[in-house]
Design a protein that fits this description.
heterodimer, A: 341 residues, alpha/beta, Rossmann fold, 2 domains, six-stranded parallel beta sheet, four-stranded parallel beta sheet, B: 316 residues, mainly alpha, transport (chain B)
Chain lengths: 341, 316
């Protein structure tokens, strides 16, 4: 670690301590918050859990809340998580922050929690039960933003779309947003679409399979976790590398940096910061504190552009995802924005 | 050591006592770890999700009883849950017909497996994809709503004893009387134990297998309905875990993979024990990476005890 890095780290730590220190509200110092998480098997979820540990650990040390424990189900199954939520109620937590296995299947357990006086805040994988709070991601806008960026860069051309895991609503939403952007700008045509399952190896195989049948591709729109695989497939086929929109993964950012240094390659990268779990934590703390919080909120994206690539790459650990952790002030801003609209 | 105990109590009795004793031990530990669970409210929350598991376990028990294995019960329960949350709620008649039709298909599966002498593992594994596909067709995105009467039944708050306990006792009691105490029940079990002699005595093994598969389908449908009553809405993948849970539940409750040797009361106890094992590990604050392993360890522990007892039985 260089001296400047260490200084920067100290400064962030100090800022964190400061913001959390001033925010330690006496009203919630005896409250206990639990994280109910349905899956921990990919880099995004691992980063999410690490962010939770870091930020809530500090919050507990500062006395903002009494406890903030993370629970992950052993298997990604609705019935398991429903049982887990019921167990958390029995353990007497005041609030449950929830990344749900199903938007509908947990409603019974969430209702039990609400009836027992437990505050439920869902994020990322949200639940539809009206008594719970939702911090949702506008995935449709994310897809649309990709096409709008391309419209700025290009006069038109063919697009290859890499989709996520079939049947998951996130995949449908992003794809719908991309379609909307294409319709609105009116200068692109989607000439091919494959499922990359948000994984580099799957994306590479899928793109390699469809490439021979495609005309010139001007750009590749993606969902994250698939950009590096797409680049490898293009390279292996000996074709020109189009503009590939990236998804904030370390391998994608590294590849982008190499291309940028070698040939001035330009693109953008967008995804959701795993630190959104910490935003949900502060929102739950605010609700316990008695703040007026609307039931539906939207979380901002984490977008990386040509000029802040190096900075973000330096902050992303190997095999991880670019991340930001949220503070109490960020949570208040998100709440205020949702109240205003 | 087992043989010493065996001299005092008959191994058969000991064997029958093992499932309830393991359940009691687990329950006492949970009460001690988390005193909140001792209340009416606590028991309700602790046990309500065990009811659909118990029903699925009973379904699996009928199949195991005739020497077969059902690897599709989880997907089947999911499908029934999806139908319950959609058709049964919107157009009750269509919903009832669909569920009855599925029970009929189960009976036909029994016939197919018997007549063509197919391995049930292969047939049911294949059917699990059919059930899952149908579930996605019925309910493409998670949703639907539980019919009011199922919801109010599953959230019933009877005085003194929490509903899940009453339901568990009722399920175990009804199936026990039907399968273990009635004359026809004995014939049904006999088809698993010694099909050749039953056939020679003039019973139709085909009809018995169809009956057992239909019963399994019936209890699978009940499981799906109970599950939706608890969750309020369904998801095509909602009960996939039930396949393994139900097999483990039967075995934990004293059943065996060789046919004819099953116990309905034991199966319900086994299902509840498995459901509680999850809560127990969660109250222990065990790292989730270890939880599946720990759940397996509990299973192995109980089965190891049973082997010890069986050895005592054999020595006599």
């Amino acid at each position: 670690m260089t001296i400047t890095e260490r200084a920067a780290l100290l400064a962030t730590a100090a800022a964190l301590a400061f913001s959390a220190g001033t925010s330690a509200v006496a009203d919630t110092s005896d409250k206990r918050i639990a994280l109910s998480n349905n899956y921990a098997g990919n880099s995004w979820r691992q980063a999410m859990l690490r962010s939770w540990e870091k930020v809530t650990g500090q919050a507990v040390a500062d006395g903002a809340v009494a406890a903030a424990d993370a629970f992950t189900t052993a298997e990604n199954q609705v019935t398991e998580q429903a049982a887990q939520i019921q167990n958390l109620i029995l353990q007497g937590y005041d609030a449950i922050v929830l990344n749900a296995a199903s938007p509908e299947g947990l409603n019974g357990a969430v209702k039990e929690a609400c009836d027992a006086g437990v505050t439920v805040v869902s994020f990322d994988g949200i639940v539809t039960e009206p008594c719970a709070w939702r911090i949702a991601v506008d995935f449709q806008q994310m897809g649309k933003d990709e096409v709008l960026y391309l419209a700025d860069r290009l006069d038109g051309g063919n697009l290859l779309e890499i989709r996520g895991l079939a049947g998951v609503f996130v995949d449908d939403e992003i794809s719908a947003g991309i379609q909307e952007g294409v319709d609105e700008t009116g200068k692109f045509e989607i000439v091919g679409s494959v499922h990359g399952n948000w994984a580099q190896d799957v994306a590479q195989k899928a793109v390699a399979g469809i490439l021979p049948s495609l005309p010139d591709v001007a750009a590749v729109v993606t969902q994250g976790g698939d950009g590096y695989g797409a680049a490898q497939a293009f390279k292996a086929a000996g074709r020109d590398i189009p503009i590939i929109v990236m998804g904030n993964r370390h391998d994608e950012l590294t590849w982008w940096k190499e291309q940028k240094d070698a040939s001035g390659y330009e693109t953008m990268s967008v995804s959701i910061a795993p630190g959104v779990s910490t935003l949900a934590f502060w929102v739950a703390q605010q609700i316990l504190d008695g703040a007026e919080v609307p039931k539906d909120m939207t979380v901002p994206f984490l977008r990386i552009d040509q000029d802040n690539l190096e900075e973000n790459l330096a902050n992303t650990e190997e095999g991880g995802v670019a991340n930001v952790e949220y503070t109490l002030e960020d949570a208040k801003a998100v709440i205020a924005e949702a109240s205003g609209s | 050591m087992a043989s010493q105990i065996g001299n005092l109590i008959s191994p058969r009795l000991l064997r029958a006592l093992l499932p309830p004793l393991s359940l009691a031990a687990l329950l006492v530990t949970i009460f001690w770890l988390q005193p909140r669970t001792q209340s009416y409210f606590g028991l309700n929350l602790l046990l309500n999700l065990a009811i659909p598991i118990a029903l699925a376990t009973i379904a699996q028990m009928f199949i195991l009883c005739v020497n077969e294995l059902d690897l599709s019960i989880g997907a089947f329960v999911s499908l029934c849950a999806c139908i319950t949350a959609t058709w049964l709620n919107d157009t009750p008649l269509l919903g009832v017909l669909a569920l009855a039709g599925l029970v009929g298909v189960y009976a036909l599966l029994g016939a197919l497996i018997h007549l063509r002498n197919l391995p049930s593992i292969v047939v049911t594994l294949g059917m699990s994809f059919v059930w899952l596909g149908l579930a996605v067709l019925v309910l493409p995105t998670p949703g639907g709503a539980a019919p009011g009467w199922i919801r109010s039944l599953m959230t019933l708050k009877p005085p003194l004893v929490p509903f899940p306990i009453i339901a568990a006792v009722a399920i175990a009691g009804v199936v026990h009387v039907g399968l273990m105490r009635s004359a026809f029940g004995t014939v049904l079990r006999g088809a698993g134990g010694n099909p050749a002699s039953l056939a020679r005595a003039g019973w139709s093994i085909l009809r018995i297998k169809m009956t057992m598969f239909a019963l399994a389908g019936f209890f699978g449908a009940l499981s799906g309905m109970a599950l939706v009553g608890l969750t309020t809405s369904a998801d095509a993948n909602i009960a996939l875990r039930y396949t393994l849970l139900s097999i483990a539940g039967v075995i934990l409750g004293g059943g065996e993979f060789v046919g004819g040797r099953v116990s309905p009361i034991g199966a319900v106890i086994g299902a509840v024990t498995l459901a509680l094992a999850g809560s127990f590990l969660s109250f222990l604050r065990l790292n989730p990476d270890w939880q599946i392993g720990a759940q397996g360890a509990i299973l192995i522990l109980v089965l190891a005890l049973r082997v010890l007892i069986s050895r005592g039985e054999a020595r006599r």
